Amino acid sequence: MAEVPEKAKCVVIGAGIVGNCLVGHLTKLGWTDLVLLDKGPLPNPGGSTGHASNFIFPVDHNKEMCLLGEQSANQYRDLGLSVDSGGIEVARTQERVDELKRRMTSATAWGIEAHLLTPEEVKELVPFVNTDIVLEGFYCPTVSVVDSLETGTQMRNVAVNGGCHVAANTEVLDIITTDGPNPGDRTVKAVVTDKGTIETEYVVIACGVWSNRVANMADAYIPLVPAVHQMADVGPLDILAETNNEIGYPIVRDMDTFCYERQSAGSMEVGSYAHRPIFHHPDDIPSNEEAALSPTEMPFTPDDFDLQMEQAIDLMDMLGDAEIKYAINGLLSLTPDAMPCLGELPEVRNLWSAAAIWVKEGPGMAQVVAEWMTFGYPRVIDVHGADVSRFYPEERGDEHIWARSAEHFNKTYGIVHPQEQWESRRNLRVSPYFSRQQELRAEFFQARTWERPQWFESNADLVDRYEVEDREVEWDARWWSPITVAEHLNLRENCGMVDLSAFQVFELTGPGAVAYADYLAVNKVDVPVGRSIYTPWLTPDGGFHSDLTMMRMGDERVRIVTGVFDGGRDEFWARRHLPTDGSVSFANITDQITTLGVWGPNAPHVIGALTSQDLSQAGSPYGSLVDVELNCGGRTIAATLFRISYVGDTGWEIYAAWDDGPVLWDALMAVGADYGLRPTGGGVYGTSGRLEKGYRLMGAELESEYNPLEAGLARPKVKAAPFIGKEPYLAAREMGDPEVSMCVLTVEDLTDSQGRKRYMQGGNEPILTQDGQRITDSHGRVSRVTTAGPGPSVDKHLLMAYLPAELAQPGTDLQVMYMNELFPVKVASTGAVFDPEDTRLRG
Amino acid sequence: MRILCCVKRVPAPGAKINVTDDGLAVDASHLGFATSPHEECGVEEAVQITERHGGEVTVLTLGPPEAADQLRYAASVGAHHGVLVATDGSAWDPQRTAVALTDAIRGLEAADGPFDLLVFGNESADSGGFQVGVRVAYALGRPIVNGIKGIEVDADAGDGVVRARREIDGGFEVYELPMPAAVGVKEGINLPRYPTMRGRLASKKLEIAEQASDAEPGGQSLVRLHRPRETVTETVILGNSPEAASAVVDVLEELGVV
Amino acid sequence: MLLVVLEHDRGAMDEAAREALTFGRGLAAQMGLPLHAALIGANDAELVAEAGAFGAETVYTAVHEVLSDFGPEAWGEAAAEMIRQLNPRAVLAGGSERGNEIMAQVAARLDLPMVANCLEIDPNGGAGEWTITRQQWGGSLLEDASLVSERPLLTSGLHTLAAEQTDAPAVPVAQAVEVDLDPSLARTVVKDRVVLEAGVTLSTAPVVIGGGRGVGSPEAFAPLEELAAMLGGRVGCSRAVTNNGWRPHSDQVGQTGTRITPEIYIASGISGAIQHWVGAKASKHILAINIDPEANMVVKADWAVIADLHEVIPAITQEIKRRRA
What we know:
Chain A is built from 21 helices and 39 strands. Chain A is α+β, with helices and mostly antiparallel strands. In chain A, the strands form 7 sheets. Chain A has a 9-stranded mixed β-sheet with strand order 6-7-5-14-15-16-13-18-17, with helices on both faces. In chain A, strands 1, 2, 9, 10, 11, 12, 19 and 20 form an 8-stranded mixed β-sheet that branches. Chain A has a 6-stranded mixed β-sheet with strand order 30-31-32-29-23-33.
């Protein structure tokens, strides 16, 4: 009956909390000719927004989720559609009591008021809690309950007043794309609905649990699965009815049973993340017409909920005699890595995702996507962890989505270690040395899809040699081994070999390759053939998008080498900005190239045993690429020696053909035996080695909220060639000294109140002044630990953090909070704490 | 009072009903299962009667093993015993169902004495055969009236009397059935309670007596289910505001109902 | 013969009986059988004549003291006895509550299959294997059934066809049948009737004003009541409304409530869930008032007003007052 326009600037599919807020934010940013579609009726089209429990617990260990939750909570507050009910996370176990200390630490980091409560204090706030089973409570007064449907309506009305066309009961049947602009590219062209076809420049998929199905219409993927979250509404309960409002008591999260109890007027909603994972394929979700309640309120399966009922009654006895008036298997979206899916889809230009977002982050995430579409990158906060282009092909299929979502569903209220590894879907991508590493009993950590040794149990003998202490508190020792410290010390003394095959390697070729490479990079790529540069790629606003190495391989050939965590994002960025005149081609050659890093004082001896190449600074200068032939036990293989170091000792990254890898490994191990060479894990490469040198890592120290000056990565001069983010970068340089600087700090005393040595993990622990105050700058950016780890060669536990200029002075005494305790720290350097003169790099 | 309620497990009503590809059953994957609504009210009524007069409620169902869920649900709202006559899940015709239930009730009565009242649903929500209760009551020699939306038990009158109300246009008929008796009840006789959490948990412990039946199929058998042809109506929109009232009254005048 | 058991209430024929006669007339013609009717507890000339107008050639009557008022067991036994004596080829009744109940009693007593709420019956040449299309789920689903029976007992789906008199009415022969009934059958005869309200009822009202969840509260039904009273109609409601306790269940239109047949059903704030539609679809005309132009009720209505019922209903009332004034 309703018609749709024939043309639009942008079609947003899905009128839940995200789609509504998105059209509102786009309108505020000046967009016109918007169309908002939903296959269901308004104001509740039947998606997850309609049955959400609508509460926001503001504290999250994850920065993106926490700050966007806070941002969202504030947007709800600004509309007057939010009530601060307060909320308490209760602990039933000692492990959870420790976790609540960690929550306090994160609350401090993000500046959120929080208090630890005794059981009696919990009872004062929530008189119907059984204090016999509660050990402690974590209370946030700013936990809020929001009206997500009305918020959506108001944000939609903002857009409607700006001319947005809203078509409810309109089902999307197809998304049409055209080929181009470059070979292999596709660009969105039109949305086909049951009410007609809309030609459009942009399409945003904000379809919640249906998002992947809609993306699939364009042969694209939004890796998420509709998952059941059980919820039962029990009542009436007099004590609740007497508050005479929607919510009068704080929400209780019964963390150890993975359940919550949330007052809803006269009854209590009991929700669970404890039941078995129950997933549905989007095609199996009923239509509005087929659904008894709504499509995402599926029939309750009581057998899955019985244990939670018993536990709920244990906590609140009164619940036992209240009637279960309404109970659902409510659907929400889970992704393989528990992060949302935001941004332009890598498969189709101008097709965007705003999916896998819960009510608690909806308005903030919508703002992120609106800014991204408007300015080329979000402004409110860095969201690289939610960037939909982060996924590798192996992560986009249902097998991976279902397995990983099943693994993390029960961790929704779980205690998740910052280094926690996945159990499912391992060994998806392995290096050519995998079987050899297994024989050496490598402990593998998975970086997205790639397995990388974190340390080798075969090096256990080094622990005794270097007298490395173990960590006494299990939490600190979890996903850690003293072997990693021993490997570090061996590398500094002798030599270490690190498998870097997970590097993502791309090549730009063609007459425009060098100019285009320069357009991406801050530093000059147009260097002599055989030279490389280490450079940031900036966002249009001048913050970090990437941090990587670019190599001038030929007159018309530039190689890009980046880390595995950012390979997807960097590949997409490089492809997305490619000139459309055919002057540059892009290729991903990761599968063809293997890389081994060999570093340490003996590295020249080891590699020298395989080649006659002059390995002195004259024959193989720092930053240079030298093509060599390596004599590997009688076989000669071609390789490129790249003299570089991310660990602070001299050595090379050896690039060779993938298939030559095993021969190379065996040869290096054979000749290295005499030089103390040991296979060395990522614990040295990614943490201790780089920390001692103060080297920054994308995603940790480097985020879009910070610029090269603040990160200490600005060069003395700015190249003449244009590049993305140049104007804001120049403007920042004009401002003079940056407001904050990246610093390395040393922990001066690791002893906690119980006399135990504790080791910060690098999980956003706040840096505080000596009188315990948070440190923030004029943008509200907080000083927090971005990386933490051992500095074996300086005999200190090291932290990295941005500090305001007045504090970023060596010798400044500060504190770090860890597990809700304070430890003294001292600013050591804005650069390296080990070998600051880089004498060892010269070899 | 000993009361027996017969209930049927049916796909939960309330949404569009799809048929499985083979046409032999309702596709319940989106619906879930429930107790047929009239019978859910029957259980509630029986529980209320025992709450007033004392006694116990036995719930009997014939269906697949999963129909135990409906017995547990009944237990979670106050029924005391559950009996399942297990089928292979295929649809049993009304004659066969009635014979099986009759046999089951005879067995229960032989063991523990007669039931004072048999409560049936007026008709099942799904197949709607309108006959099983009547057949069973007749076979057991019990008086039965269908369409009942009100029950009062007068235990003092003779051997006991059930006063039953049947809704008719503008009022109701009153029947007085001598006990032991049977009724076919309809939704509206009460608003059934929801289970409490404790009720639900207690129902997990319900011991379900299982019985087999050797009843022979009757004359009716299912060939296939299908959705009726949908008639497409051209809806004339009279307006988008209260001003449409004038056009509405024009229609009413045209129909001669003003 | 094909025998139609006529439902009546103390001498007033029920619409379902007329539908059954209409249905039976077609089936009898198809099978080449005469159409006869059975009248239980009455032998009024008017009833007999009306049966004739709908095509019954002979009207068999059974009168007995336990048949003085309706009683399912007594009526069932009387019908069973008439069938035993008359040996009809098939027996049909209306698919009303009583019609189905009587036929179930007959089926129990004769130990024969019974098929309720039929829409189509194919005798397949009369060899005793019948193919039947009948209603399930109150008519939202259809069942093709096979029936093996020498004497099928059938009811016709309520309001699934319009009762029509025959073009060639005959003056039917009334013929009394002696039935010997056990006085104990009186145990289920109506003892009393309580009239709660005189006048039109939901199932007979010419106008029904329906209200759904969109009405919002019990009090908000007042304007619907006013309009219904003005049109000599009744207020009906959806299951959501009775589940919320806003209206008594006797006002519910739907599969488990009342099947209405008004000249016009004004459905306001009703989305039109399938269970409601089952009770409303026999309305001759439907007008929907809803803010959602895609609501099922709107899509299925003859006319619709896309606006807030809280404004539209009073406006209709005002307009009628204005025109009457």
